[in-house]
Specification:
The complex is a heterodimer. Chain A is of the alpha+beta class. Helices cover about 30% and strands about 20% of the residues of chain A. Chain A has an eight-stranded antiparallel beta barrel. In chain A, strands 1, 2, 9, 10, 11, 12 and 22 form a seven-stranded mixed β-sheet that branches. Chain A is globular. The two termini of chain A are about 50 Å apart. Chain B is an alpha/beta fold. Helices cover about 30% and strands about 15% of the residues of chain B. Chain B contains 13 helices and eleven strands. Chain B has helices at about 70-75, 90, 105-110, 115-135, 145-155, 185-190, 190-200, 220-230, 245-255, 280-295, 350-360, 375-380, 385-395, and strands at about 5, 20-25, 35-40, 50, 80-85, 140-145, 170, 205, 280, 335-340, 365-370. In chain B, helix 4 packs across helix 5 and helix 7 runs antiparallel to helix 8. The chains are: A alpha+beta, B alpha/beta.
């Protein structure tokens, strides 16, 4: 077959380059290519990545190399192995290479339970029975076998044994999932030379020994044997539907630096969930396919991927010995039907040991999902990063009052006396972070500069000069120079400060450095990696921006969060059983967004034309001859590692296609070598059916009640006291001023005294929930309207929404209104001084109490907004509230239909300082101190950070520019 | 065809005791007439292998250590042909001084000293001479090491090998794709050589050795010397050992070809020095152009920093002079020998070649030696057990 370089773009009578073009060579594409080639079609595989054979995979630089060789690591640089796509809300990681995801996946071939094939799937897939045979076929092709099949397995894989023991200690069972790994030397069944597993742990960075049964060793090898042609480093850029039938594919051949146009009768789109969606969304298809095309991207979901590292385990686990995943345990959620997740032991190659040491540093504790929100959610997350206001642009560090105040407070020696050690700890580490060497000199410099300017501005010499004039600048600079000559430059000061900080606590400097930065391989044997994936994935969508050729994911991260939180809790259990400390999801810390390696959905199958892009056989609706055959077909998360399911669905769909082409009995009456080959493989698959049955490779729901997770999520609580007055009225006040007037009129006849505990059960969920809800319970002393003079005490319960915007962009489902909201925010950022909605936050209280058989509701808000002339404390501490009631039932309270009063209650400054902050504590009590400190820190930086962003926004912007703190990128979003 | 056949005595081949027949091979037209050297080891009826050395080095490359690849092949029942093509110091040091052009300018000479000419003249001449001696039906395969492999693959792509019935070739470290490690980039992108030549039009060759009394072996041109002085010392090999000075200069010129401690133990006393020699500016410039372009193309093709292969904004049409034509590779069995820690060419050079061959369905095998640098393939402590058998398999 001759491929024409840059063939003519017009003239549909040009010959086809192949009968079928398969775009991508991953789990879908390899199956398609293999089966189509066996059926005698002329197949052309277009793969954008490289071929990887033994020793071809990228490795971390060895010491002898002066310049690290980062080639072939990322797709973006040099068409390398890893393709990392930023989808805004999530970071998607996938492989680019001949063999697709199989090059870097962890070999697990798990079949999900029947329960996952629910109503979201087309009818034929319900219960998954139709796929069983195809699972066997895929298992046979990949020659899967659990790690226990390794000849020298017995007792040699310590990490598996330790994991099983840890799970047993928790009352759980682990099992050995079947892996696509070869345990013997020599050619495999498809004639490809392979080696046996050396247990080097490099599965996920590419097997250097060809022991992994990657697709190029089986499916693709068979395809090539039957005449399929593969072109690697050939990136498809566009698809056009030809009038006379068939398709035209435009691609870039990176090897010869040319662009080509190829034609084929059939086209199989198997580029992975993200890229298939992209290619489909931008394809030029016939009119009839438009509705399907418009649906491209709907139903994308990332799977609930989470990762945790356990450090300092009680026993050695040797995580860099053995395949990446060897054992797994399934957790079924007790309350929700059919919801489960898996935790698998992870491993990595020796080359990663040092790098993974970084995560161990306490600096990253809790810098997991807890920190992701922090102050980040102050700006609505989907809004563009606001520009720095013009007045502070260009200045190094405009130090505002809040930071000064905090620094001053810290300088006072009685600071420790006011705060509990925990709060102090969290605060001081917050400040320590600010004192990062990068920032400190700038802060000092700016402070000195300002002080000097203010001082010299008052001197008679420069009093009447332009405040920004050259003379004053000169004088200040000279004074500064003198000051630094006398006291040392800010850099020196920073050095002193750092040294003082590091030598605190009798720790050696080297040790502190190691603790802070953590980059070392010490104790590498006493580590465990835990990988989790769950079924609890929210369905989202991928939006394609045609102008920028960009995809963005639209996910409700909060829907994902409970799943992540549960996975991490079980990881905590395991970490405890292993006797180590857990660090979770570094991606949240570094990037403020989750990472997924299991992109699925986007071109989902459906029965009806308005629900999905493709039919249940993978054909794009309204465009015959165009098929999608990869992970993007999946209609809902299967929970387990999805590769087996993608293979099985591809097998099923491609067989359906071939049977339509070659007759419904193919391959039975076909004696061509390809068909015979297929028949033989189908025969071979039967052995795997038996194995799967006897070794119970299917994940199945538990018969007995499942074991619950022991660890409690990290929470937080504090006490709050408020006092004030209200006035009985049946008219709801309009505006804060009317509330204050009501308070004045109600004083002193109608007092309210509130005392309650505020609690967050799961901090992680609290941050990810854009409503930041907290629970309240306590007492209210109130004199109800029409009640005797003496106030009575009632038990009160309710909720508090902390720092929420007035209008929640996430709640606006209508795209046009949401866009209007966003543009309003942008208008605001363009004109500083305008108090738009994005700079205003509310704390919304909603309390219910029972008095004399009737139910009342106290509903109110604190408004936080920067306004000239308003003192920050008064604004933050005033709760403008309405009293609603009485209602006959607690349910009726939610209507809040009748207003009974209005007023204001306040938090006293002393009560705040001495009681509220002091009472702040982390739950449960037995959490290790590092996590506790970080939980406090996160909460404080969320709370005070939000205040600071509103009252002194220029400070954060200035800080952000000076300080490239890890995680600071969050704050602007 | 050469008329006179000289038989070299054992003493001429010292320290090797293997007997060789040395055949002078005149190529080129007036005014640039070159005499290459073809040496024959082994008996007449054994299968033949032609070995092509790299730039900067002579064919003695294959005689180290202790007889090296040549002895290994002889033991395996091969007869070995070593060609000193025009890149060899053996040829460059015998070039007429001054160059036989009006005004003695080297610029004219450079045009006749490119990899294109090697592929067009030297390799066919040698193969012709060999075929003349072994007959049309005897087995003949070719190995090209480094630039030898580069010119061999150009010769294949242009079909120059077609008349000589070669069935198997081995390309060691270089094929049609040119990728250099990071340290090689600045020089190529800086157009250092072009500058050197612009300021010193009579600079014909550049030698890593300065002390050698050779009329053609000038001290380095000023620009080259300056660039060398400014070159980060950390990128050059350190230490005092025989030939350290040469190795440092060589490392600056082409990248670190070997690390002394990784060589065969018999080669650590400066034994490899005589193998290296000057690099002709014609070859040097042409290689630089190809490095910038990323793949093989004729000399003097439009020379821009394009790196089109890496950018996604590719041109619509291929570059006309590109040698990326797979037709002739389809009739050959190509074996690629790749050094994982190659510091002269990046190993991608061969990986891309392999992908290109596979994509175009040319029979090919790739063997990677992950912890070898380029000369370690031939001169390493364990080459005899690892690399040589792989080469023999490919021949």
């Amino acid at each position: 077959m001759q491929v024409s370089p840059a063939g003519p773009a017009d003239g549909s009578d040009a010959p086809h380059d192949a009968e079928a073009i398969v775009i991508g060579s991953g789990f879908g594409g390899a199956v398609a290519a293999c089966r189509l080639a066996q059926a005698g079609l002329q197949v052309l595989i277009l793969e954008r990545g490289r071929r990887y054979e033994a020793h071809d995979f990228p490795t971390l630089p060895v010491d002898s190399q002066l310049l690290p060789d980062f080639r072939r690591w990322t797709w973006q640089h040099d068409q390398g192995l890893w393709d990392v796509v930023d989808l805004e809300e999530i970071l998607s990681v996938q492989a680019a290479g001949y063999g697709g995801g199989s090059l870097i996946y962890a070999n697990v071939h798990l079949r999900p339970p029947a329960i996952v094939f629910d109503a979201r799937w087309p009818a034929v897939y319900h219960d998954g029975a139709i796929l069983q045979g195809f699972y066997d076929l895929a298992a046979h092709m990949l020659e899967v076998a659990p790690v226990s099949a390794h000849p020298s397995f017995q007792g040699s894989l310590i990490k598996s044994d330790q994991m099983s023991q840890a799970a047993k200690a928790l009352g759980r069972e682990t099992f050995y999932p079947p892996l696509a790994i070869r345990y013997a030397d020599g050619p495999n069944e498809h004639g490809v030379e392979q080696q046996s597993c050396q247990r080097c742990g490099n599965c996920c960075t590419g097997c250097p020994h060809r022991a992994k049964n990657t697709l190029d060793a089986n499916y693709l090898a068979v395809a090539e044997r039957h005449g399929a042609r593969a072109m690697t480093q050939c990136e498809v850029t566009g698809i056009t539907d030809l009038d006379g039938g068939g398709f035209e594919v435009r691609c870039i051949d990176h090897l010869s630096a040319t662009s080509r146009t190829l034609r084929s009768r059939y086209l199989f789109l198997c580029a992975g969930s993200v890229h298939s969606t992209r290619l489909l969304a931008r394809a030029h298809l016939r009119e009839g396919a438009r509705p399907a095309q418009a649906l491209a991207g709907v139903g994308y979901f990332p799977g609930g991927d989470a990762v945790g590292m356990v450090y300092q385990t009680a026993h050695e686990l040797f995580p860099s010995f053995g395949p990446t995943i060897t054992t797994a345990l399934v957790h079924w959620e007790p309350d929700r039907r059919g919801s489960f997740f898996l935790i698998e032991d992870g491993g990595y190659g020796k080359q990663l040991e040092r790098a993974l040491g970084v995560l161990r540093a306490p600096a990253w504790v809790g810098r997991n999902r807890l920190s992701a929100a922090g102050a980040a959610r102050v700006g609505p997350s989907r809004f563009p990063r606001p520009q720095a206001p013009p007045d502070c642009r260009g200045r190094p560090a405009g130090v505002g009052d809040p930071l000064d105040a905090v620094l001053d407070a810290l300088a006072q020696s009685d600071f420790r006396a006011i705060f509990t050690p925990e709060v102090y700890q969290s605060f001081s580490s917050f400040i320590d972070e600010l004192k990062a060497p990068m920032l400190f000199p700038a802060v000092v410099d700016a402070t000195v500069e300002r002080a000097l300017r203010e001082r010299y501005q008052r001197t008679p010499l420069v009093k009447h000069l332009d405040p920004d004039g050259p003379l004053l600048r000169l004088v200040t600079r000279f004074a500064k120079w003198l000051a630094y000559r006398g006291f040392g430059s800010p850099t020196d000061l920073a050095g002193h400060a750092l040294r003082a900080m590091l030598s605190a606590g009798d720790l050696g400097r080297a040790e502190v450095g190691q603790r802070v930065l953590g980059y070392n391989a010490d104790g590498a044997d006493r580590r465990a990696m835990l990988l989790a994936m769950g079924r609890d994935a929210a369905s989202g969508a991928l939006h394609y921006d045609a102008q920028q050729d960009r995809l963005t994911a639209d996910l409700d991260l909060f829907d994902l969060a409970p799943g992540y939180a549960r996975e991490e809790l079980l990881m905590t259990d395991l970490a405890r059983a292993l006797g180590g400390e857990l660090r979770t999801n570094p991606a949240w810390a570094f990037l403020g967004k989750p990472i997924t390696v299991h992109n699925q959905g986007g071109c989902r199958m459906s029965d009806g034309p308005d629900q999905g892009v493709t039919t249940d056989e993978g054909e794009v609706r309204g465009c015959s001859g165009l098929y999608v055959l990869d992970g993007s077909l999946l209609c809902g998360s299967v929970g387990a590692n999805p590769s087996a399911t993608i293979l099985a669905i591809a097998e099923r769909n491609v067989l359906a296609f071939i049977r339509r082409l070659r007759g419904p009995s193919w391959p039975d009456e076909d004696s061509s070598p390809g068909a015979t080959d297929y028949q033989r493989q189908r025969e071979g698959a039967k052995a795997w059916a038996d194995r799967a049955r006897t070794l119970s490779w299917n994940i199945s729901p538990p018969i007995s009640p499942s074991v619950d997770i022991v660890s409690r999520p990290l929470g937080l609580g504090f006490k709050e006291e408020m006092e004030g007055y209200y006035e009985p009225t049946s008219v709801a006040p309009r505006g804060d001023a009317q509330y204050r007037r009501s308070e004045t009129r109600g004083c002193p006849d109608y007092p309210i005294k509130l005392e309650f505990d505020v609690a967050v059960e799961t901090l992680a969920a609290f941050f990810e929930d854009e409503r930041h809800r907290m629970k309240l319970s306590g007492s209210i002393a109130i004199r109800l309207p029409s009640a005797p003079r003496e106030p009575k005490l009632h038990r009160v319960k309710g909720s508090l929404e902390l720092m929420v915007p007035r209008v929640k962009p996430y709640a606006i489902r209508d795209a046009r209104r949401r866009a209007a909201q966003i543009s309003a925010a942008q208008r605001y950022t363009a004109r500083p001084g305008n108090t738009g909605c994005s700079r205003e936050r509310f704390m919304k209280y909603n309390l219910t109490f029972e008095a004399g058989g009737q139910y009342w509701c106290l509903w109110g808000y604190k408004r936080i907004r920067k306004q000239p002339g308003i003192d920050a404390w008064r604004a933050t501490s005033s709760l403008f509230c309405q009293l609603h009631g009485p209602f006959p039932t607690p349910e009726a309270v939610r209507t809040r239909s009748t207003v009974a009063g209005a007023g204001v209650v306040h938090v006293e400054l002393t009560s705040f300082l001495f009681d509220q902050i002091r009472s702040m504590q982390v739950t449960p009590k037995d959490v290790d101190p590092a996590r506790r400190a970080w939980a406090l820190l996160q909460f404080c930086s969320f709370f005070f950070g939000t205040l600071q962003r509103i009252y002194a926004p220029e400070l954060r912007t200035a800080l952000d520019t000076v300080l490239r703190m890890p995680g600071s990128s969050n704050h602007g979003r | 065809m050469p008329s006179a056949i000289m038989t070299a005595t054992a003493s001429e081949l010292s320290p090797l005791s293997m007997e060789a027949e040395s055949i002078p091979l005149p190529v080129g037209k007036s005014p640039l007439e070159l005499t290459l050297r073809l040496r024959r080891y082994g008996r007449g009826e054994d299968p033949s292998a032609l070995l092509l050395h790299g730039a900067n080095t002579s064919s003695d490359t294959f005689l180290l250590p202790e007889g090296g690849l040549v002895r290994f092949l002889l033991q395996q029942g091969w007869q070995v042909w070593l060609l000193d093509w025009r890149g060899s110091p053996y040829v460059i040091e015998r070039l007429p001084v001054p160059p036989p052009w009006p005004g003695g300018s080297a610029l004219e000479e450079i045009r006749h000293y490119t990899v294109d000419e090697v592929a067009r003249e030297d390799i066919p001449a040698a193969l012709g001479a060999i075929r003349h001696r072994i007959g049309p039906r005897a087995h003949l395969s070719v190995l090209g090491h480094c630039v030898g492999g580069g010119s061999l693959s150009i010769a294949i792509a242009k079909g120059h090998l077609e008349p000589f019935a070669v069935k198997k070739v081995v390309l060691s470290t270089l094929g049609l794709f040119y990728e250099v490690p990071w340290s090689g980039w600045p020089k190529a992108e800086d157009f250092l050589l072009e500058r050197v030549l612009g300021n010193n039009p009579d600079c014909g060759a550049i030698s890593p050795k300065r002390s050698r009394p050779n009329p053609r072996d000038w001290p380095w041109p000023l620009d080259m010397e300056r660039a060398y002085r400014r070159w980060p010392r950390a990128w050059l090999p350190k230490g005092h050992f025989p030939g350290a000075q040469m190795l440092r200069r060589l490392t600056f010129m082409i990248g670190e070809p070997y690390a002394l401690e990784r060589l065969h133990r018999s080669l650590r006393g400066g034994e490899v020095d005589p193998v290296f020699g000057p690099l002709h500016m014609g070859l040097y410039l042409h290689l630089g152009q190809m490095v910038r372009r990323g793949y093989a193309a004729a000399f003097d093709a439009p020379d821009v920093i394009d790196r089109t292969r890496l950018s996604s904004a590719c041109r619509a049409a291929p570059i006309p002079q590109s040698y990326l034509d797979p037709a002739h590779f389809r009739h050959l069995q190509t074996t690629l020998i790749s050094a994982g820690e190659n510091q002269v060419w990046h190993r991608d050079a061969l990986d891309l070649m392999y992908e290109w061959l596979r994509n175009n369905r040319a029979p090919s095998v790739k063997r990677v030696f992950p912890h070898c640098d380029i000369q370690e393939l031939l001169w390493g402590e364990h080459s005899k057990e690892t690399v040589y058998p792989a080469i023999v398999q490919g021949l």
